[in-house]
Amino acid sequence: MQSDKKYWFLILVLITVGAFLRLYHLDFNSFWLDEAATVIFTQQSILNYWQLLNNLGEVHPPLFYIVEKLILPFGNSEFLYRLLPALLGIATIPLFYLIGKKMFCCEIGLIMAALLTFSPFHVFFSQDARMYTLLLFLMSVALLFFLKALETNDMRDWVIFGFFSALSLWTHFFAFLFIAILIIFALIQLMKLKKNLSNLLISAIIITILCSPLLLIAKNLISSRTSGSTWGLVGIDFVIRSMVLFLNTDPDGLLLLLIFFCFGSIVLFYDYRTKFYFIFTILLVPSFAGLILSYKMPMDPRYLIVLLPFVFMIIACGVLPFFKKLNKYLVMGIVVALIILTSTPQLSIYYTLPSNNDWRTASAQIEKIAVPGDFIVVLPEYNLIPFDYYYNNTSSGTLEYSASDFKDLERINSLRGESNASLFILFTDDLRFSDISGNLVVWINNKSSIVGDYTGVSVREINSKFKGNF
Q: Domains of the chain: which residue ranges?
């Protein structure tokens, strides 16, 4: 008991440090496209949002946006919209400890919690006004009670697992793969041990009933999303990039964690064979599914954030052989110190350089140089969402348009006629998806002057000699 109290003191230290890392500079980065979309979706009624899902205007279940509504009475700043993801990110740190403790021992749990505390990947999404830390938090709770239920086969544990699994599905559809694997594994284990399956069945029924409304829109949504990829990583690049981001993009940090990952895999295979198969099934099936889906729909490593407990679990298991030869407290101290040292370079860059498209600065620049009657064109058209969060053309007296291709831009430019109005264009790298030939970007570069480039947002002004015609 005394030993456990010592560990909880260390966990409280990690929670405190993790809170600082996730709350520090919370409003430093500008909202990017998806975060600005969160503002719009949060302000919808639940009925209107459900219609957006049915009409394919949004692709994620509504739970995150429903919870985010809690901040609306207090404002719509970047800080407030990111506060919930940050708090959920902090709350997940002790869950990783409990998961590691349940699967192996307190030491593994502590290392897992330390890896999450200083994870640049998790810090970034804890400061992102999207649903990914909510998804990881809910699935971590579900996983914890799943592990308890496997031991006890108690109905209470299975019910809690089912409830939080359903909440995860109401947060992100990709949770389905994770939950399905857990249920299949539980079925195999319980049958092998000749235990009663009724409580597991109750858990599955709870998930099915609570998630049945999602089935009404899932078919059309899947059909739409798999009709053709427009962005994201494809094939093995998706899996490799996901692994790199989960570990560390800094070469030294990546190498260290890969070494521990390999050691951990060997330890699991030889000493914990059943757990090895369980953990690697959890890792490989969603990763392979993501690889296949990446050829049909946009895929991003953040969709696999629920795999973090297992990635960190394998890394932590790489330390187990050292516990047999050295003092375990010394080993943990060294490991945590290495985690901090190898995470610091990436975190320092994150806190000092903007990592999102800087719509805040780009919009401020337009506010500064545009006068009433000027034309503002945003490309592609969906970039109006983050631009309009920061810029109000009504108060500025400018004319705001969106465009997707050369013809749209040509039509808008012709509206200037012989007036003295300037035409400013704002676009991001996403333009290459709607301008596959690249002709539009070439034209913009040749016939416009550079106003500025603001972390992925390019601002150009069409030269006056091209007024009214291209």
A: 2-352, 359-466
Residue 87 φ/ψ, nearest 5 degrees: -65, -40
3-class DSSP state of 376? strand
Parallel, antiparallel or unpaired: strands 457-462 and 448-454: antiparallel
Question: Which are the contacts of 191, defined by CB distance < 8 A and separation ≥ 6?
Answer: 197
Burial label, 87 (beta-carbon count in 10 A; 0-12, 13-18, 19+): middle
Q: Cβ distance 36 to 362 under 8 Å?
A: no
Interatomic CA distance for residues 11 and 13, integer angstroms = 5
54, 217 Cβ separation under 8 angstroms: yes
Q: Which two tokens stand for residue 108?
A: 């593994």
**Sign of dihedral through CA atoms 380, 382, 383, 384?**
positive
Strand partners, 425: 377, 460
Q: Which residue has the tokens 């953990």?
A: 279
User: Under DSSP, is residue 375 helix (H, G, I), strand (E, B) or coil?
Assistant: strand
- Residue 314: name the closest of 260, 357, 245, 356 by CA: 260
pLDDT at 151 (0 to 100):
92
Residue 379 near residue 409 (C-beta atoms within 8 A): yes
Cα dist from 4 to 101, 105, 112, 345, 419, whole Å = 10, 10, 16, 32, 75
Q: Is 59 helix (H, G, I), strand (E, B) or coil?
A: coil
pLDDT of residue 54: 58
Cα–Cα distances in Å, from 419 out to 385, 394, 440? 28, 20, 24
267, two tokens:
């330890």
Using DSSP's 3-state secondary structure scheme, residue 227 falls into coil
List alpha helices for 318-438, DSSP H: 320-323, 328-352, 359-369, 384-390, 393-396, 406-414, 431-434
Contact status, residue 311 vs residue 260, Cβ threshold 8 Å: no
Cα–Cα distances in angstroms (integers) from residue 149 to residues 152, 155, 197, 238, in the given order? 5, 8, 11, 33
Instruction: Tell me the per-residue pLDDT of 144-168, one tens digit each, with 9 for 90 and over.
Output: 999 999 999 999 999 999 999 999 9
What residues in the chain have per-residue pLDDT under 70? 1-3, 52-58, 219-231, 434-438, 463-470
Q: How far is CA 331 from CA 5, 24, 113, 318, 335, in A?
A: 19, 29, 15, 12, 6
The DSSP code for 299 is -
